[in-house]
Amino acid sequence: MTISNFEMALYTILLVIPGFSMSFAYGIFVPQRDKVYQPAFLRFLFFSCVNFVIWWPLIYRLTKETYWIDHPYRWSFVIIAILIISPFVIGGVIGFATRKEWFRKIQAKLKIDTIHPIPTAWDYIMDKPSWLIVTLKDGGVIYGRYSANSFASSVPTEKDIFIEKIYVPSESGEWVPVERSAGMWIPGDQIAHIEFVQLDEIKHYSKGVNQNE
Predict the structure, then answer these.
(1) Are residues 59 and 138 in the same domain?
(2) Which residues, including other chains, have CB under 8 Å from residue 48's CB and lie 6 or more apart?
(3) Does one domain contain both 66 and 146?
(4) In which domain, by residue range, is 154 found?
(5) pTM recorded for the entire structure
(6) What is the pLDDT of residues 108-129, one digit of tens each?
(7) CB 197 within 8 A of CB 132
(8) Per-residue model confidence as pLDDT tens digits over 90-113
(9) Which run of H or of E encompasses 115?
């Protein structure tokens, strides 16, 4: 028995598309590790296998009953649901749960120690609101608030950051908002290090700031 080029392409698509859909949805919530260490094709293949295992009882029953002959339109929807919609939803749910660290909390209770799914400390900490003290390589220091309207790049080679609110320290050590400031963008190659201050501690550092903004 020989397999034609068309059949080979079809089988490849069937094995890659669900994995791509699941990986894409997962990546919306969790930054992906360097593709050098995780070849994309193998990751897609693994996710596709997980998806087909979940749906195998239904696939087996429908193919055994030649469902596609009696209900061609419904069969088309089933194929789309299994190949694209289902893996996307599964990947999104797993990604969201991973981002919220629900799995790690369960692992901690079971005393299971595994590698963290978030690839870098930058991606991990920049997902949390905080007050920042950014020290630049030229010696400059920037005080700011990193919150809902701020942004940090998750691209491995471009670790830039946008801080939504900038402050200047007064002589008494309080942080005073810079008037008419709409935020500040800082390129990653200019950052020496960043100090993080918890939001609930800001009363010790600033004045005249509405924390619910």
Answers:
(1) no
(2) 14, 15, 16, 17, 18, 19, 22, 87
(3) no
(4) 121-204
(5) 0.64
(6) 788 787 777 777 888 888 888 8
(7) yes
(8) 999 998 998 888 888 888 788 787
(9) none
